[in-house]
Design brief:
The complex is a heterodimer of chains A (231) and B (521).
Chain A (H helix, E strand, L loop, with lengths): L5 E5 L3 H13 L3 E5 L2 H11 L3 E5 L7 H9 L6 E5 L4 H9 L4 E4 L4 H14 L9 E4 L2 E4 L4 E4 L2 E2 L4 H12 L4 E3 H9 L7 H15 L9 E4 L3 E4 L5
Parallel strand pairs in A: 1-2, 1-3, 3-4, 4-5
Antiparallel strand pairs in A: 6-7, 7-8, 8-9, 10-12, 11-12
Chain B lengths: L1 H9 L3 H30 L4 H18 L2 H19 L11 H50 L3 H11 L5 E9 L2 E7 L6 H13 L3 E2 L11 E6 L4 E9 L7 H68 L5 H32 L8 E3 L1 H16 L3 E5 L7 E3 L1 H18 L5 E9 L2 E7 L33 H11 L3 E6 L5 E8 L17
Parallel strand pairs in B: 7-9
Antiparallel strand pairs in B: 1-2, 1-5, 3-4, 4-5, 6-8, 9-10, 10-12, 11-12
The chains are: A alpha/beta (231), B alpha+beta (521).
Amino acid sequence: MSDVKRILVIDDEAAIRKFLRISLASQNYQVIEAESGEGGLEQAALNGPDLVILDIGLPDQDGHAVLTRLREWSPVPVLMLSVRAGEGEKVRALDAGANDYVTKPFGVQELLARVRALLRASPAPNAALSAVEVDGLRVDLAYRQVTLNEMPIALTRKEYAVLAMLAAHAGRLVTQQQLLREVWGPTHVEHTHYLRIVVGRLRQKLGDDPAAPALIMTEVGVGYRLKAPLA
Amino acid sequence: MRQEHGAERSSVQPGDDVISTKRNYAMAAAAAGVAALIALVVSRFLDLPNISLVFLVAVLLVAIRSSKGPALLCAGLSFVIYGFQFLPPHGSVFIHREQDLLTLLFFLLVAVLTGDLAARHKRQYVQLQAAQRETQALLRFSERLASATDLATLLQLLGQRLGPEGVALRLVRVEAGTVQALAGNVDALTELERITACWAWTHGKPGGYDSHNLPHPHWWWWPVSSSEEPLALLGVRSLSAARLDDRLRCVVESSLHTFSLAVARIQLTQALADERIRAAAEQLRSALLASVSHDLRTPLTVLRGAIDTLALLDERLPSSERQELLRDTRLETERLDRYIQNLLDMTRLGQGALHLERDWVTPSDLLAAALQRLTPLLGSLQLKTEVPVALPLVYVQAALIEQALVNVIENAIRFSPVNGTIEARIFVAEDEVGFAICDQGPGIPEADQDRIFDMFYTAARGDRGGQGTGLGLSICKGMVVAHGGQVSVMPASGQGTCITLHLPVDEQPVGESEEGSTGCE
């Protein structure tokens, strides 16, 4: 196979598919289109895309159902297109295996950034990453060391665990449930305030402005995202 | 029937009754004695027949003062004394002459007739008194009812009137076989109680089922109606006895008319108020529709114009102008998006109780998210943020407060002068977290400060970034108030306006103690 990444777009709006096709093609991605959930699943099975962009509101069956069926056999990264209506829906999709989302109406730059982040990380297992560098921040996952502008930063166990998980998925959304489950354990998934406090302290130690964070971005009500490292 | 019960109610206690009867009999005996003494004196001067008159007077007096029984006793005693002392042969009660027998009969007749008459008269008097008391009580009751403004108060007043025995009261309506509570007691009804309520409702007659065999007292229903149509059913249930006693029933029935009038009045008032609210809602809806068509079309017009210009003049436009037109289209779409979000939020708020999906949120995250959404709108404006290092968490639905902040900041942007500065500050007060957004705009006249959160209020001059919809701030207030917070407006130091969202700080969740843990080096 060539190096060209294939992206499957499942959306019933022709106009949305069109501008996605144009903008994605401009980045040298190969675009496959489907206008229904059923057709999308078929295309996914036939073409084995590297990424699926899936609209949550599809006419024949909703995006959640498509996602669930897709996840039965494929680990392909899925980027959801959702409306702002509720975090509830986004969280549901992310829990069901979606990897990230953009909120309609979204900017193309934002979309392309998400696509890049998702494609970069897949399918390499996270363990393969030894260190992540974002701006002045360097998270050495192998040696469990964090430096900011080459100055070592002392972090507590939990702070490090949260930062390491964000770093391993740099540029991609990590839901608060994932973080809580991974760092605190499955019984603490509801204890979002643990996470809020730890992220607050992390930002403080990393000198991130809480009113305009540049390193650890909050997706309010959904999760966190570490700034994508330069490609 | 009613009066009889009134009489019963107002008569003295049974114990007192016995005493007064005894006293009456004693009085009868004493009267006979006194009559004998007088007769003895009189007998010195007058003939025998006159003496009997003395006794007759005694019997008459006793009969008037008391009742038949004592009068008969007095008559008997009088006759015995009369016969013993005055009739020949003296010293014996035996009667020898027919005319003396007649005297005895006469005594008895007078005693019975007068006693009866007197008793009836007295009963009537007592009844009259009771009826007057009852009328006065009813009058007081209706006066109190007249000042009541809701059904619950009416029931309370009726409860007071029914006395201290303790009854449960409720007002219900029956619709399609189901009983709907209006006021008062809300205990679940048994099937039998439901059926009797339906019966009373459809027949317009009091009804219920009670019997001493019931495990607990049942509701008894009285239709409350001002004309034919029943307005409600009044349910009365005794709290102590198994069934309502007759006295209570009578009081309920005597109060029912006044009570019905009061219920009718209150229901009418409520209907009028509902009508007013409906009218206001209708007005709001049409204002909203007008606003929607205006506010949706403005950005669409800009979009259409910019796109057409680009399509038509593409090559002939200098690149800077092309970029500017493109930038405008983007800003307009974002404006449309915000506007649609506001409309959605408004319907959410309009549906009454907003269901909040709360979670612990860092206040600065909310500000950051709102600012990020508005960055393209800032243009030449400076943004100054101030966030304290230590912030408590707030327990809110993040998206709603974020939207409230977006609306306030957008408002500030709209009223800011070119190159102005917008200040976004988070502060922590005693039991609240505040978000203060200050602009350097023209400020808000003091008279209007209360009105800026009203729906469709837009300040006269707000030319930067287009006219406002007049929805943003009222939605903002709705969101914040739904979280138990409030919004306030103050003139900024120097020039401009500060709008502050105050969110209550709930008791902080118990954090985990990680202080002692080692670093990860």
